[in-house]
């Protein structure tokens, strides 16, 4: 079956400042156990997304990617000072999480900061608690955060040249579905509604 390619643009808005990255996507067919759940994947396969890591959780504990991804997880990259996009996306992801849990599946949301200078574990703990009791916030050194973002091909850039306190950060806004063991199997754009996300996540959870 011939592949059909479409173009996805991921963008983040911050007080009129927009930044984004383009991902080339292709409709995927296949006979693996998740084939019936997937509608799209990045050209070359979703296996190209993800990386092992050790980061600091919002409770201050150092955790590995294997410890974090012990259940289906909706992974998002953002920052707590984000004025509009991040809280909307975090709330949407938390709503999808609740819908999947109501359907009887154990899932979670994960929020990785792109602003480790300001997003300490304590700041992340306060932030994630606004959306979900089970949302995991992760931070680390500049190098650790850069490596994780590279693993998921996530563009971000801090505009802190003139203001070291109230700066904004451009970043992509895709949410990734990561299965236990760290395998990234799906992504969702900002346009995805929580009901569609929940249906897709539940399909993967049932097929796992």
Q: What is the β-strand count? A: 12
Total of domains: 1
**Quaternary class:** single chain
Distance between the termini: 25 Å
Instruction: Classify the helix fraction into a percent range.
Output: 25-40%
Give the name of the CATH architecture: 3-Layer(aba) Sandwich
> Unreliable runs, pLDDT <50, ≥5 residues?
1-31
What is the 3D shape? globular
The level-1 CATH class: Alpha Beta
Structural class: alpha+beta
What's the number of helices? 5
The fraction of residues assigned to DSSP E strands is 25-35%
What fold name goes in the CATH topology slot?
Glutaredoxin
Instruction: Please state the CA-atom Rg, rounded to the nearest Å.
Output: 16 Å
**Major sheet size, sense and barrel closure:** 7 strands, mixed
Provide the succession of SSEs: EEEEEHEHEHEHEEEEH
| CATH homologous superfamily (4th level) name | Glutaredoxin
- What value does the average pLDDT take? 85
> Strand order of the main beta sheet, please?
5-4-8-7-6-11-12
